[in-house]
Write a structure and sequence with these properties.
The complex is a heterodimer of chains A (186) and B (280).
Chain A (H helix, E strand, L loop, with lengths): L2 E6 L3 H5 L6 E10 L2 H12 L12 E3 L27 H6 L4 E4 L5 H9 L3 E4 L5 H4 L3 E8 L8 E15 L6 H9 L5
Parallel strand pairs in A: 1-2, 2-3, 3-4, 4-5
Antiparallel strand pairs in A: 2-7, 5-7, 6-7
Chain B lengths: L1 E4 H17 L3 H13 L3 H20 L9 E9 L2 E4 L3 H15 L23 E7 L4 E8 L1 H4 L3 E5 L4 H16 L7 E9 L1 H11 L11 H14 L15 E11 L4 E8 L6 E4 L1
Parallel strand pairs in B: 1-3, 2-4, 7-8
Antiparallel strand pairs in B: 2-5, 5-10, 6-9, 7-9
The chains are: A alpha/beta (186), B alpha/beta (280).
């Protein structure tokens, strides 16, 4: 299987070359944000305030790590279900968000919004947090520390294995993959 | 009557919640390896390889296999001849979770209130299910339950006329609609019968059986294997990327029910099907 190497922040030319079903290795800086951080991001935007991260070109990773043991950069970390971020995602795409990392399918409206904003949704393997944590070279909390595991972390990742789930042409691995392997049961 | 100090419960719960998160059962690993052998999707095989490799790392380094170290669901089979001394049993269970979460570097994933949502900071309280049984022992099972798969679970009150067809349709459709969200390959705990809450409890309890072990009643063993075949024909595959391995096992548990009812519950369990038990 061919594996493409990509860097974060993302550019439009990189995003436009990603195709659903393709495996990639991501390196660079990404930011964690899950349910509670998404709500706070949108509350800040509703009040006309600025976000703790300039999202232009950036990637959000839907994840909340386990606490790090002494001497470790981070504890095990892996993706959470992305559909729960769907209600907040259009507002963040309008801020220039280019990529999202999570697990599971998105709503049809979000697939269309990803296409419209020329963004990409990348899937990580859920439940393999001990393995995924090895790709994190640096980690630092940059916002909402009071949220505990839901705080926003700035992560520097190296060769983080991901699969292109929804591409900027509207391609969707979850629907395409299921269709390919579905059997009619009699 | 046998006296057991609650301090023994604290110690047991503390180590069980750590061990459950670090060590995936050999029964689950065996089913994952079998999946790897028959998965046709290259992406699906890659996912299964990562899951098996991840389990090895978690075990070797004694770190959680998944960042979602779960809601601590505790099953107690409490012998009726046991007298618990020197404290409050429920407080002891929560103290065990608190200590295990801190010392074991587990994640605090519980909010104090469902709508006001402030993290309790120590992964307490646990959800505790107690059954009083004959004898003078306590069996404690800690089953950390991840939110992603729990969210895909459902209870349905079918009319008796729906029969086995209705049950089949509901269970398979529940897994189909879950797609990649619950981290497939999943296990499906299915409760049939009882009341609204009883069938949900049965569905969860079904997940404690050794993974892939059939129901002792051949009728239900056949239903389990039929459901598994149907679920694995859906095409969802590992992590929902498409493939043949959507479920590792289906476990059905049943209970007598009302002449008017046919309750069915599906408790969806991710591939990190974790639980550890200890008898005091």
């Amino acid at each position: 299987m061919s594996v493409k190497r990509i860097l974060s922040p993302l550019t439009e030319s990189v995003v436009s070359n990603l195709k659903s079903g393709e495996s990639v290795l991501l390196s660079g800086v990404i930011f964690t944000a899950r349910d509670a951080a998404h709500r706070r991001f949108c509350d800040l935007l509703d009040r006309g305030e600025t976000l703790p991260v300039n999202l232009s070109g950036e990637i959000l990773y839907y994840a909340g790590p386990v606490p790090a043991r002494p001497g470790k950069v981070i504890g095990p970390i892996g993706p959470t279900s992305s559909y729960r971020m769907d209600p907040f995602t259009p507002k963040l795409l309008e801020q220039g968000l280019k990529g999202m990392i999570g697990k599971g399918n998105r709503s049809d409206a979000i697939v269309r919004a990803i296409q419209h904003h020329k963004a990409v949704y990348l899937a990580s393997v859920g439940g393999t947090a001990a393995l995924s944590a090895r790709c994190v070279a640096e980690a630092e909390i940059i916002a909402f520390e009071d949220l505990g595991p839901e705080a926003v972390y700035r992560l520097e990742v190296r060769d983080f294995p991901l699969v292109v789930a929804v591409d900027c042409m509207g391609g969707n691995l979850f629907t395409e993959g299921m269709e390919k392997f579905r059997k009619i049961f009699d | 009557m046998r006296n057991i100090p609650v301090s023994a419960v604290i110690e047991a719960v503390k180590s069980l919640c750590m061990e459950a998160n670090y060590f995936l059962g050999e029964d689950v690993l065996q089913l994952l390896r079998q999946c790897l052998g028959r998965e046709e999707s290259p992406l699906g095989r890659e996912v299964l390889c990562q899951i098996v490799e991840n389990a090895r790392i978690a075990c070797d380094e004694k770190i959680p296999m998944c960042q979602d170290t779960g809601f601590s669901v505790v099953f107690l089979e409490l012998g009726q001849d046991v007298h618990l001394t020197d404290g409050d049993l429920m407080a002891a269970i929560n103290e065990g979770i608190r200590q295990g979460t801190k010392e074991g570097y587990l994640r605090s994933s519980i909010v104090r209130d469902p709508l006001r949502r402030v993290n309790t900071g120590d992964n307490t309280p646990a959800v505790v299910h107690v059954e009083i049984v004959p004898g003078d022992k306590i069996k404690i099972t800690v089953a950390p339950k991840g939110g992603g798969s729990e969210n895909m679970s459902e209870v349905k009150m079918l009319p008796p006329s729906a029969g086995i067809e209705g049950v089949r349709e509901f269970v398979v459709d529940r897994i189909r609609r879950s797609g990649g969200n619950p981290c497939p390959p999943v296990m499906a705990g299915v409760g049939i019968g009882g009341t609204f809450e009883k069938c949900a409890w049965l569905a969860k309890k079904a997940l404690l059986r050794p993974a892939g072990s059939p129901n002792p009643d051949p009728f239900y063993a056949e239903l389990e294997s039929d459901l598994l075949k149907r679920i694995n024909s859906l095409g969802i595959g590992p992590m929902g990327f498409g493939g043949r391995c959507t479920a590792l096992a289906v476990h059905v548990e049943t209970h007598p029910c009302h002449i008017a009812s046919l309750p069915v519950a599906v408790n969806v369990q991710c591939h990190a099907a974790r639980h550890r038990e200890k008898v005091l």
